[in-house]
Amino acid sequence: MKAELMVHNANQIAKYFASFPHEEAVAGVADHIQKFWEPRMRKQLHEYLGQGGSGLHELVFEAAKALH
Amino acid sequence: MALLQEIDFGTPKHISSTLETTLVTLEIDGKAVTVPAGTSILRAAVEAGVQVPKLCATDSVEAFGSCRLCLVEIDGRRGTPASCTTPCAPGMKVKTQSPKLAKLRRGVMELYISDHPLDCLTCAANGNCELQDMAGVVGLREVRYGYEGENHLQAKKDESNPYFTFDASKCIVCSRCVRACEEVQGTFALTIEGRGFESKVSAGNKPFMESECVSCGACVQACPTATLMEKTVIEKGQGEHSVVTTCAYCGVGCSFKAEMQGSEVVRMLPYKDGKANHGHSCVKGRFAWGYATHKDRITKPMIREKITDPWREVSWEEAIAYTASEFKRIQAKYGRDSVGGITSSRCTNEESYLVQKLIRAAFGNNNTDTCARVCHSPTGYGLKTTLGTSAGTQDFDSVDEADVMIVIGANPTDAHPVFASQMKRRLREGAKLIVVDPRQIDLVKSAHVKADYHLPLLPGTNVAVINAIAHVIVTEGLVDEAFVAERCEKAAFELWRNFVAEARNSPEAMEPITGVPAADLRGAARLYATGGNAAIYYGLGVTEHSQGSTMVMGMANLAMATGNIGRRGVGVNPLRGQNNVQGACDMGSFPHEFTGYRHVSEDGPRHLFEQAWGVTLNPEPGLRIPNMLDAAVDGTFKGIYVQGEDIAQSDPNTKHVTAGLKAMECVVVQDLFLNETASYAHVFLPGASFLEKDGTFTNAERRISRVRKAMPPLGGLADWEATCALSNALGYPMHYNHPSEIMDEIARLTPTFTGVSYDRIDELGSIQWPCNEKAPEGTPTMHIGGFVRGKGKFMITEFVPTEERTSSKYPLLLTTGRILAQYNVGAQTARTANSSWHGEDVLEIHPFDAENRGLREGDLVALASRAGETTLHAHISERIQPGVVYTTFHHPLTGANVVTTEYSDWATSCPEYKVTAVEVRLAKKMSDWQKQYLELRQQTTQIGQGAGQPVETGVSR
Ligand code: SF4
Ligand code: SF4
Ligand code: SF4
Ligand code: FES
Questions:
Q1: Model pLDDT for residues B757-793, shown as the tens digit of each residue
Q2: Nearest CA-CA partner of B473 in B571, B566, B561, B564
């Protein structure tokens, strides 16, 4: 998928959870991506984060630590 | 089954809403009968097995008492009262037959017949005419008044409606049609005009087609004579046997009797015992079934190497073998995850189940998805998160006990007509109505229905509106504290309460964003919270947004906060678009879950399926439709099996979809027609219509109803048989003798279905899941006494505006919807006379915006967004507010989805169809996309000559 679209999708998830208390928000983003993103998409996200993750929401960075 | 004749009880059953119904006992012709108070003598008699002659009464409408044929004698009362309008009283002694009554009845019949043509032998209703029957019953032997006097025999026929005729010469002015149009349908298109001899039925003094009539057929069904008659019956005669089945159009799931002559349908009559429709239907289900035998049906499998090659007709064996070898080749070359498939909301539960089973077990991955992705996936997510299960909370009949209805982003009179009639009935009884919709839908104001509040929000601001409603409820002390304390998670509720109470969520603060006057919003919120039983009904105007899932949760929050859930008359109810959306979702079509909504990563359910299916299953979620297309463009997804779905037309951003499809090496389409997706296909497998197979559909109220085979599949195989054949060819054995065996497997593997079987459905008529040991007869109302997830969970619903914004280049907001006569992408309805109502998609635009652009009614206009451009004709209308334009998506050439964007719901990727920034201008010719479309269509739909082979059947066995 286009990096732009992936960033957009990940940030949308982050923006939904952003209003929750911080810990819940991080867990929410991580859980959502783990449950609904196919491994190819999670891999792309990780690679993108490896390259600096430009444009990604703060919560996505934190959530990514909990992802595999 | 022989021709099914349901009993006509003469007058409707009165179900009192209080639990204790008073019963009265009386005697009719010496038989003791006990009936609920208020029941007519006529009905009580029929219940006791006594037939009283009648003409103007029928049990779908209230009695009128005009024909005087149902007269009876009652001990101790003078005269001969009409039994249809006289209620039973305790101890009454009624006589339905006596010489006096016989004479009176004969006199009545004599008058009727003296003004009725005597062409019974050649009449379309011959053998099925109540006038004829009654003449026989009362023993009419002579008619003393001839035709010399004034009569109506030369009255003109109205044949304007494509499906039925109105032959006024045969009318006995019993007004059953008028009452059916009012009471059953709620359209009020008909009246009796004039008095005495002059009185006649009139559709507003216009031909039916030009009147308010919506062609539901209720009047035709109610008519006791051949006055209102189906054209198919006039042409073909009456059926000789019936098959009870379920409509394959919308999520109401009406039950029908298909009246057949051999394997040919003569007419469809809504089935009185159908629990979703109680004998009513709309123009689609009743009349628009001709597509099933349309000449465009493809009945032979076809293959081709390149999509620019002409199609080559082949045998089923060859098509299946070719498909299997292609999928194997692709998986060997690009990996196990390089293929997938799509199940269909138009196919049966059993078929969806098999396709996802094929993908998970035979392909060995979870790349299965379903068209619900583009419509109700947010419903699944939102309701599961808050309440614990992905389904509506009520049955349709629950609306009979609603005091307040909120209709959000739904247009029931067009998209769910039969349920709309039920809503309108309740509204006429005094229930209150709030409509939240950018457009003035029919319910806002129509005959005898007027919304108490219409909140005309700007497209894309649903969540802002729901938060503002919640704000009013929380800050004005309207929360049902006891309910919340007992039934919901406390911490989550407190978080939510604090969140919605923030001043930024107030109606006043939101007004500039939503365009909804704060005072109206406050009024609506108070009404919802305090007006008694309040029920939410919603549609795609809720889900097809970037915050679709958030909005679903927002509505569930409201219902919990006000205690409007867990009993009749309340709840949160999705109105499902296609007939089997609910079922397709239940059947494990989504890439992340098995049947019954259990995530593939959960060991328990996965191991259960591994054992039953004898394979190891992937614990990782698979690709969703848009992600399959992304992966195709990226080169990692190469083959797809699409059953009964047209993603090239129904999915957003057509260009992206077609780019994805073009990048694949094997696209398999199984459908009735060469649909848009088939333009990109390498294999075409003929699909079977709902008339050609056995199975079940599950409607919007979780009701599982039988689909019964009325004719053999035109292509030789039912869809489930083709799936089995493909699986067998792939080396994963699938052997079922009948769809009932598939349902048995589903029941074994799905806790909410353990009590479901074909035998049980036959016994109960239909079953609402969950159906198991705890609920052996199914579950009409969910979450009674406790939520499926235990405690209800409030979720914060921050309003995040969509990134799709208007700009100077694209200053208008486009939103989309449906229209009554057409269905979805139009593949079926456009191949019927329903096109008489909606021959093309038009763009509704406000007079103000039209004038600014120099547009007049009917002008060809270009509709452009940053995604693409199309053309259609303008319809200037004040139903839509300034700044917003509206269209439908029923015709491929419109390509409404050429202009919609790739934005989607954050949680489910459900596309944001309901908001696109656009510009509209006068156009001289078709858009480039449309021209290319026509060329490509021409090029990719050619079928080679002389390559046909006879259809082989039974390869799945
Ligand atoms: S077809 Fe339906 S809407 Fe039309 S006149 Fe008859 S009952 Fe009324
Ligand atoms: S059209 Fe049929 S139902 Fe209507 S008044 Fe005439 S006979 Fe009765
Ligand atoms: S389309 Fe819907 S409302 Fe119309 S007959 Fe079919 S199921 Fe019923
Ligand atoms: S049936 Fe009772 S008056 Fe006509």
A1: 999 999 999 999 999 999 999 999 989 888 888 899 9
A2: B561
Q: Which two tokens stand for residue B457?
A: 């929000």
Tell how far the Cα of B65 is from the centroid of ligand 2, in angstroms.
14
Q: What is the pTM of this model?
A: 0.91
Considering just the CA atoms, what is the radius of gyration of chain A in Å? 11
Give the 3-state secondary structure of residue B446: strand
Whether B630 has its CB under 8 Å from any CB of chain A: the answer is yes
pLDDT reported for residue B95: 93
| Cα B437 from Cα B457, distance rounded (Å) | 6
Cis peptide, bond prior to residue B776, ω within 30 of zero: no
- Decide: residue B490, CB within 10 A, 0-12 exposed, 13-18 middle, 19+ buried: exposed
> Which ipTM value was assigned to this complex?
0.93
Q: Are B142 and B89 in contact (CB under 8 A)?
A: no
Query: CA dihedral in degrees (B565, B566, B568, B573; nearest 10)?
Result: 50
| Backbone angles phi and psi of A17, in degrees to 5 | -80, -15
Q: Which two tokens stand for residue B326?
A: 């292609």
Q: Which residues pair with B683 in a beta bridge?
A: B303, B668
Q: Mean pLDDT, to the nearest integer, of A41-66?
A: 89
- Strand pairing report for B432-436 and B404-408: parallel
- In this structure, which residue's CA is closest to atom 8 in ligand 1? B181
β-strands B23-28, B93-95 pairing: parallel
**Closest Cα partner for B589 from B419, B390, B401?**
B390
CA B795 to CA B561: how far, in whole Å? 12
For residue B222 and ligand 1, the question of a CB distance below 6 A is answered with: no
Say what the pLDDT of residue B544 is.
82
Q: What is the Cβ-side half-sphere exposure of residue B869, based on CA atoms within 13 angstroms?
A: 14
Cβ(B546)–Cβ(A11) below 8 Å:
no
Nearest CB to B798 within list A2, A8, A19 = A19
* Closest by Cβ to A38, choosing from B546, B623, B634: B623
Question: By alpha-carbon position, which residue is closest to atom 6 of ligand 1?
Answer: B219
CA of B216, closest atom in ligand 1: 2
Q: Is B70 in the pocket of ligand 4 (CB under 6 A)?
A: yes
